[in-house]
Amino acid sequence: xxxxxxxxxxxxxxxxxxxxxxxxxxxxxxxxxxxxxxxxxxxxxxxxxxxxxxxxxxxxxxxxxxxxxxxxxxxxxxxxxxxxxxxxxxxxxxxxxxxxxxxxxxxxxxxxxxxxxxxxxxxxxxxxxxxxxxxxxxxxxxxxxxxxxxxxxxxxxxxxxxxx
Amino acid sequence: xxxxxxxxxxxxxxxxxxxxxxxxxxxxxxxxxxxxxxxxxxxxxxxxxxxxxxxxxxxxxxxxxxxxxxxxxxxxxxxxxxxxxxxxxxxxxxxxxxxxxxxxxxxxxxxxxxxxxxxxxxxxxxxxxxxxxxxxxxxxxxxxxxxxxxxxxxxxxxxxxxxxxxxxxxxxxxxxxxxxxxxxxxxxxxxxxxxxxxxxxxxxxxxxxxxxxxxxxxxxxxxxxxxxxxxxxxxxxxxxxxxxxxxxxxxxxxxxxxxxxxxxxxxxxxxxxxxxxxxxxxxxxxxxxxxxxxxxxxxxxxxxxxxxxxxxxxxxxxxxxxxxxxxxxxxxxxxxxxxxxxxxxxxxxxxxxxxxxxxxxxxxxxxxxxxxxxxxxxxxxxxxxxxxxxxxxxxxxxxxxxxxxxxxxxxxxxxxxxxxxxxxxxxxxxxxxxxxxxxxxxxxxxxxxxxxxxxxxxxxxxxxxxxxxxxxxxxxxxxxxxxxxxxxxxxxxxxxxxxxxxxxxxxxxxxxxxxxxxxxxxxxxxxxxxxxxxxxxxxxxxxxxxxxxxxxxxxxxxxxxxxxxxxxxxxxxxxxxxxxxxxxxxxxxxxxxxxxxxxxxxxxxxxxxxxxxxxxxxxxxxxxxxxxxxxxxxxxxxxxxxxxxxxxxxxxxxxxxxxxxxxxxxxxxxxxxxxxxxxxxxxxxxxxxxxxxxxxxxxxxxxxxxxxxxxxxxxxxxxxxxxxxxxxxxxxxxxxxxxxxxxxxxxxxxxxxxxxxxxxxxxxxxxxxxxxxxxxxxxxxxxxxxxxx
Lengths: 164, 789
What we know:
The complex is a heterodimer.
Chain A: E1 5-11, E2 14-20, H1 26-33, E3 52-55, E4 58-61, E5 74-76, H2 90-98, H3 107-120, H4 126-133, H5 144-163
Helix pairs in contact in A: 2-5
Chain B: H1 15-19, E1 35-41, E2 47-53, H2 55-58, E3 63-68, H3 69-74, E4 106-107, E5 113-119, H4 122-131, E6 133-138, E7 164-171, H5 173-181, E8 185-193, E9 205-211, E10 216-221, H6 226-235, E11 245-248, H7 264-276, E12 280-283, H8 286-292, E13 299-307, E14 313-325, E15 352-361, H9 375-393, H10 397-404, E16 413-414, E17 420-421, H11 426-436, H12 442-451, E18 455-464, H13 472-477, E19 486-492, E20 498-502, H14 511-523, E21 530-533, H15 551-577, E22 585-588, E23 591-594, E24 600-602, H16 603-611, E25 625-630, E26 639-648, E27 655-665, H17 672-692, E28 723-726, H18 744-761, H19 775-788
Parallel strand pairs in B: 1-12, 10-11, 14-15, 20-21, 27-28
Antiparallel strand pairs in B: 1-5, 2-4, 2-6, 3-5, 7-15, 8-13, 9-10, 9-12, 13-14, 16-17, 18-26, 19-20, 19-25, 22-23, 23-24, 26-27
Helix pairs in contact in B: 9-18, 14-15, 17-18
């Protein structure tokens, strides 16, 4: 039996070389080995989305993936959403302004899902936003203020581009 | 209104850490040398335990300890308790069968825990638990509450005849019978309030930790009320005296009631930490959450409303069978009794009400308070009855409600079921909701929908709830085992900033922000100079925690009292330093001023003087640090009207909520942005109950809806946007005038939604539909009605 397997990938832009047990999920690796506890575990069967991270810029469930499968990939977690200057991203700011979180547990995954949407579609309608984030469960907010936050972030990002 | 004071939509202090992944939830915590616990759970709904063989597990890699219920018994660990005593119709106390933290002789629901394996790693603990061999003798199970009392049903507990926990009543039976005998019209309904799984997205978790040097124990736990947990674990489970036990609830990822209770797993982790002399950590899997978090609702009700020829309500008669599950959870008994039947007057002047409730045991997960706790069930009974009565008598639903509402000038209003409503204006909420929902335009919208082949319906829910459960003496007389006051402390630091301590607990509600707003408003301290501490029994004096929408009304009021004491003391200090009479000192906007002069001291300067008392009033204690405890005069009574408008596709049964209006009277609103979030979240919960969620067991007691693949949670694409309005009548029962807002949506929405669905289907002959009204169920109802027509 192989005790551990060596993998190399980047996490939030930083190269990581690590030896992981083959049965370790990516979310456990991020949380337990790399200390990145922002990605939360809500169901471990791929439905709630609290563990969502970006894998090569696409939101995925890090509970449904083994860490070894991330070998060679670029992973972005909630800890990597801030700009290099430490400023919150437009999405994070908009979530704050709109009260798009209550207990905060689903928030990292929700931010990742929303960022994935905006990367693909910078001007989503509210129906498109609801469709996109229906991948992630939130028990507190009723989603409305999350939808408003994503709309506000999109608007600010588009205005920022216009003004540049 | 100041930028950060009462009434301002301030961005929350807690959010930066949540947005950046820097929250401190329990599973994020790593204690030095921590071990991991995995529980061995019953796969059967009901079975005798003939033997537990732990020998293979004991020699498995990494396993440090294996414990069973016998080990707990040997150490004198008491069983889990129920903290509210109910006296039944015959004057007898409710049946309270033993609830061991680890089952010893019998398991009584799927997921019932009977052993724990503690190991170096989580994987080793899980592997070890797999190796524990349990010899079960399967027993027949009883699952549905309506069957529980049948003579042929198996007994969940051999010492509880007919599975009857209590048979309880409230109200004047004779007067109610008389009202029915004089009725011109009687409306009857049979309804089921569907069983729900709470499903906070953060699963429950715990770390027990033992310090051999001091013999102190610490429990880190996902709790809504850490002081109550400490009290129960000390006084009833006997794990450690209160002064040797610290309970810490860090960032908690949602509770909705399910994290009020003192569960087996947290108890065992704490106890086991001393056994293995290392920290013991447990985090529930989602499967464990489905099987062991206390569920909600699960009522079967027959209700009748008697009216006179003018549609005035004369009497209400309600019989409810309430499922307790296999054991009594911490507050299970009060939910279908004092939190339910006492609200059956609703917003109406019904003069005679009688309710009897049979609480029964079944071989299912324990049932306890879930967002609303008894009040959603009461509202569903009343508002489904009223809506059906309106349809049967041809009176418009809004008009029938208006005819029977407590008038705005009738307060205090004594209901026939204990509660005395302190204030309100129900007609105003109804009017405002109808205005926002454009009720007058509904007929045109319905016709337009019809032209597209769609069925439109509109439904009302005029709800009332009782929040900030109090005062302590009153709830004690009704059987509560605890007081229901709250503590608050305001500690000025020498440099003038402020640390606030509250005995309530925030797990999403935003206390760190709203309580800072209260202090900023009252004491004139800049918002950014205030930090709110909660969730640690070593830091906070005492507290009853957060549930029943009580934190602002009770916890916030305690802080107002403490702030008054700060001002009183500050006045003495300022008078001395400013060389004025105490009576001449005025306090406003953070400044103590000598009346009629420009001589003033800021409260920060007063704090410094209090800690560096070189020039200080003789005989006055140094320091500026005040604690207050607030025991309210009465419950608060939030109320309002929600209106739901749906469109149904008759070919598929799919329901779309096209408009949802919530007009609530929460009294004074501290932070409108936060309150809007509470309303929307509550409505999502209530709409979830009405259309999506339902916990089901098969006839053998196997949990069918045991994962997010099987239990339908509200999602962004099936949860409505809510149009929100307020009609605020400040509560006279507390100094802030607040009433509570966390549960209103979950209380009002099920009835509004189902009333809308039934309205859409009424002309087809569908006059009732059971929750959750899934597309499949609606489609079947339409087919059945058409076949019968």
